Amino acid sequence: MSDFLLEPDVIFLNHGSFGACPRPVFEEYQRWQTRLERQPVRFLARELPEVLANARSEVAHYLGAQPTEVVFVPNPTFAANTIARCLPLGPGEEVLMTDHEYGACRFAFQFAAQQKGFRVVEQPIRLPVESNDSIVEAFWQGVTPNTKLIFISQITSATALTLPVAQICARAREAGILTMIDGAHAPGQIDVNLAEIGADFYTATCHKWMCAPKGSGIFHVREDRQHLIEPLVVGWGWGKEKTFHRENEFLEYHEWLGTHDPSAFLTVPTAIAWQREQMTLEVRQRARDLVRTAVDSASQIDGIERVHADPFFCQMGLIDLTALQIEPDALKSRLYDTYKIEAPVIRWQERTFVRISAHAYTTQQHIESLILALREIAG
Fold this sequence. Notes:
Strands 2-8-7-6-5-3-4 form a seven-stranded mixed sheet, sandwiched between helices. By secondary structure, the protein is an alpha/beta fold. The chain has two domains: 26-275, Type I PLP-dependent aspartate aminotransferase-like (Major domain) (Aspartate Aminotransferase, domain 2), CATH 3.40.640; 280-378, Alpha-Beta Complex (Aspartate Aminotransferase, domain 1). It is built from 13 helices and 13 strands.
């Protein structure tokens, strides 16, 4: 697809890591940067509050939330640190997550646990999974009277598994347990409605599957939970002499982190418009079909196995190369150096996975090239 700036000689099957920004979105990003540099004081001090509020309103509407419940953040790692540092968690209390969670966010809670004395519990979810109900039941085995917060991904990074987050949030609400969802891989890959998910806290990237510029993410906090969240970075939005006045304290505390380039945030509405125009249901389904073809074809090769059944993956799929006994870094280097294939090789629970992503620019030839490379490597 000509909209993307990707190098044409690379088979890019790793949209899941950092995304890829389409040309129209990138050009809008540069337009905002130019506008900022032409008159920085006017832009940051006088114009930014209104244009940022407009962008926040658009992304909130896109995700099924209220504008006063959403702030822009650089990435989900930032939001996870905010929750881990701010929630009043202490000795004897527990944060429950799966053993599939993204490393940086997991580390944020482990670091805070060392400081505050609470425990981080990683509940195993065995692969392959059988049903959403089986996932919920397996995960709920980790809940104890000490569980105060559940932190789980909507789509896991390491294993590309779609988790039934709405079911888990509903059950947690009945038990009086707070919930935070890491939706880094969800918006733009699947439809997201935060009101229906019902999490207390939700974070996501805009620069992955939404195709916005790098460094754009959102942090959603339900209005009745906002009093729990203190700013991770204290700046001009906090004190009596606050420079920026917003609709409520949550926005004042968290929206202005000091001088930075907000252009990535302001470009998100353009990325949303591009999504609606270009990433139609047919285009998404084609990408999913390509991933399914890749997984099905790869699993026919001796030493390679599929991991998930169709309902549990979308535009990211997983194949298991553990039986080939190849060191992950060596495998990743060979895929790129020999075949010009950019795909992550992941080590998880003593297993070696290759994660395959497909987007609008992915072609059948890309998948065929991957399968040919895997056959040669396995041979």
